[in-house]
Amino acid sequence: MKTIVSSDKIYVSVSKIPDSGRGVFARVDIKKGEIIETCPLIEIPVNDFANINQSFLVTYFFSFGAKKETLAIALGFGAIYNHTYTPNATYKKVSGESIMKFIALKNIKKHQEITVNYNNGDPTDTTPLWF
């Protein structure tokens, strides 16, 4: 495993998005294409899927793969980024590693909330969310 350094570009505060609770915000100006944060992932074994839909934590899982066959929880601030269909960031799982990167889709101003589209990080996917 590679060494992962926490980001000094972000902080967590109260979101202005209704019913969202906390959110991730830019501590500094972030440029389009810049890596915002690299998060370790805890991948959930398939035999643990049975009770996931009954857990409060289901809203914090990321799914990966063509059939969404891999579930994971992102550490760091990864599970706190809020959803929008007009995100200013995206996320990508790094193939062969248990890490996920959050990347700016556009310039993000200092103190602006950083949002992603929960539909596999695809900024164009307007499919209703699963929860």
Structural commentary:
With about 130 residues, the protein is mainly beta. It has one domain (about 10-115): Beta-clip-like (Beta Complex). About 0% of the residues lie in helices and about 35% in strands. It has strands spanning about 10-15, 20-25, 35-45, 60-65, 70-75, 80-85, 90-95, 100-105, 115. The strands form two sheets. The chain has a five-stranded antiparallel β-sheet with strand order 4-5-3-8-7, with no helix packed on it. A hairpin with a 5-residue loop joins strand 4 (about 60-65) and strand 5 (about 70-75). It starts with 9 loop residues before the first strand and ends in a 15-residue tail after the last strand. The mean pLDDT is about 85.
Arithmetic mean of pLDDT = 83
* Physical arrangement of strands within the biggest beta sheet: 4-5-3-8-7
The percentage helix is under 10%
Give the beta-strand count.
9
The residue ranges in which pLDDT falls below 50 over 5 or more consecutive positions are none
In angstroms, what is the radius of gyration?
14 Å
> CATH homologous superfamily name?
SET domain
Which percent range describes the beta-strand content? 35-45%
In terms of structural class, how would the helical and strand content be classed?
Answer: mainly beta
Q: What is the string of SSEs from the N terminus onward?
A: EEEEEEEEE
Number of helices: 0
CATH architecture: Beta Complex
Find the CATH topology.
Beta-clip-like
The total number of structural domains is 1
> N- to C-terminal separation?
32 Å
User: Which of globular, elongated, flat, extended, rod-shaped describes the shape?
Assistant: globular
Largest sheet: 5 strands, antiparallel
